[in-house]
Amino acid sequence: MALAKRWNLLNTSFLIGTLALALTLVPWRLATSGLRWSEVLVCLAMVFSIGTAISGGYHRLFSHRAYKASWFVRFLFLCFGAAAFENSALKWSSDHRMHHRHVDTDLDPYAIKRGFWHAHWTWVMEAKALPVEGVADLEKDPLVRWQHRHHFLIGAVVASLPLWVGLATGNLAGHLVFGVVLRIVLTHHTTFFINSAAHLFGSRPYTDANTARDNWLLAPLTYGEGYHNFHHQWQWDYRNGALWYQWDSTKWLLNLLNWMGLVGGFRRVSDAAMTRARLHMEEKRLRERLSLASPGSATPMKARLEAARVKLDAALAALHDRHEAWGQKKAEWRAKGHAKAEAWREVKAEWRASLAAHRQELSAAWAEWRAARLEVRSALVYS
Ligand SMILES: [Zn+2]
Ligand SMILES: [Zn+2]
Questions:
Q1: What is the spatial distance between Cα 69 and Cα 263, in angstroms, rounded to a whole number?
Q2: Would you write out the chain's pLDDT as a tens digit for each of its 383 residues?
Q3: How far is the CA of 165 from the centre of ligand 2 (A)?
C-alpha cells in the first residue's frame, strides 16, 4: 500500500520490466542465434521513426507549435509517437510545457536539481499525478483527442509491426527481442537523456538563465534534440540544431516534408539574434574573467569590450533589418510582375551596394570585438 502511494506501479513495472527483459533477452539471443541483418534494420527503422515522431511531433509540433502540419503528418506522428509508450501527445505536451514554464524550479516536473535519475526517469515512476493543463489549443484537434483516448491501443498496434516481419521471415523470436523489447528501451532512454544529460553536460552558448545545455554528442542519439540550450532560449523554433553543421535529423525531415507541401509555417529565430545572444554570453564570461584582474587594468578593458559589443550588436541588427527590407522589396516587385525591368535593375544595384556597405561595417565591428577579446585573454594569461 505504502509502495503504491510512492510509486506508480504500472509505469514503474513497465520501465523496469522492459529494461530487465532487454538486458536478459538480448544477450541470450546473441549467444544462441547471433544477429541477423533484418533484426538490426527493423530495430533501427522503428527506433528512428518512433523517436522522430516524439521529436518532430510530440515535441516540436504539439508542445511548441513550431510549425503547421497537414492532418496526414499529424496522424502519422500521433500513431508512431504512441508506440514510444510515453503517454498521449496531450499529456506529454502538458508536462513538457510545464517543464519550460517552470524550468529548474519545484514546479518543473523533471527538474535536474532533484538529480540525474529523477530528471531521467524516476519522475515518471512517481505516483504523484500531474494535471493536464495549458493545452486547450491541442484539445481542439480531433486527432489529438482521438490519440489521447486510445494511445495504449494505437501504441501496441504500431509497436508490434516488427512481429509481422518476424512472421514473414520465420523469425518471430528475434524480431520480438530486437524490434519490440530492445526498441522500447532504446526509445525511452534516448528521450529521457534530453531531460537528464542535456540539463547537465554540455555548453551554454545562448543563455545561462537555466540549466539546459547544447550537447553535440547527444544530438545524433536524440534525432537532433541535443542542442537543448538553443531550444530553451527559442523553444518555438522548429530547429534544435540551428547551425548548418549541427546534427538535426528531425529538422532535415521537416524540411523534406515542407518541400513535399505536407508541413509549413516554420518559426525560426534570426541568425542576427542568435549571434547577439552568443556575444552577450561571451562578453559575460570575459567580464567574469576580468573580475580576477586588478581594477586599474580591468576597468578600461571592460569599457573597450562593452563598446565593441555594442557596435557589433548595432551592425548585426542593421544588416538584419536591411535583409528584411530587401526581402519585402523583392516580394513587392514580384507582385508587380517585374513590370519595369530597367527600374528594377537599378533598385537591385542600389540595394546590393548598401548591403555591401553594411557587411563591411559588420566585419570592421567583428575585428574590433576580436581585438578586445584578445586583449582580455592575454592580459589574464600574462598578469
Ligand atoms: Zn529541458
Ligand atoms: Zn521543449
A1: 4
A2: 566 678 889 999 999 999 999 999 999 999 999 999 999 999 999 999 999 999 999 999 999 999 999 999 999 999 999 999 999 999 999 999 999 999 999 999 999 999 999 999 999 999 788 899 999 999 999 999 999 999 999 999 999 999 999 999 999 999 999 999 999 999 999 999 999 999 999 999 999 999 999 999 999 999 999 999 999 999 999 999 999 999 999 999 999 999 999 999 999 999 989 999 999 999 999 888 888 777 787 888 888 888 999 999 999 988 888 888 888 888 887 777 766 677 778 888 888 888 899 899 999 999 999 998 888 888 766 55
A3: 34
Give the span between the Cα atoms of 58 and 44, in whole angstroms: 20
CA 14–ligand 2 middle distance (angstroms): 25
Q: Which residues of 8-42 are buried (b: 16+ CB within 10 A; e: fewer)?
A: beebbebbeebbebbeebbeebeeeeeeeebbeeb
Cell of 263: 508541413
Q: Are 255 and 60 in contact (CB under 8 A)?
A: no
Which pTM was predicted? Answer: 0.89
Identify the CA nearest to 91 among candidates 150, 132, 134.
132
* d(CA 253, ligand 2 centre) in Å: 18
CA-CA distance, 366 to 275, in Å (whole number)? Answer: 11
- Say if residues 263 and 67 touch (Cβ distance below 8 Å): yes
Distance, first Cα to last Cα, the chain: 65
Please provide the DSSP assignment of 24-45 as one string: HHHHHHHHHH---HHHHHHHHH
- Long-range Cβ contact pairs of 323-328 (< 8 A, separation 24 or more): 323/355, 326/351, 326/355
Q: Which ligand gives the minimal distance to the CA of 111?
A: 1
**Helix (H, G, I), strand (E, B), or coil: what is residue 196?**
coil
Distance (Å) from CA 174 to ligand 2 centroid: 35
Instruction: Tell me which residue of 166, 180, 171, 162 sits closest to 18, measured CA to CA.
Output: 180
**Among 102, 120, 124, which residue's Cα sits nearest to residue 197?**
120
